[in-house]
Amino acid sequence: MPNNQMAGPVPDPWLAAINVTVPMSVANDLDKMHGVIKDVMTQLGCPTCHSGRDLRFTIARDFVVNPAGQVQPVVAGPVVG
Hints:
two-stranded parallel ribbon; alpha+beta; 2 helices
């Protein structure tokens, strides 16, 4: 097979699931969730709609305790690419 020939179909990035973890305080607020969806879709390059995208929301279940004893949900850092 020549190097410039594809071996199979090219994966469609629109079919890949988008995982979004939110704290309970955001998940329970429809206005905040609307903002989350808008921000996610803007970062994916389509700020006006989300049809065709598989957005999967999870409530934050992992927590960290700082030296002062305060408990906070774990927040992943930004993806730098």
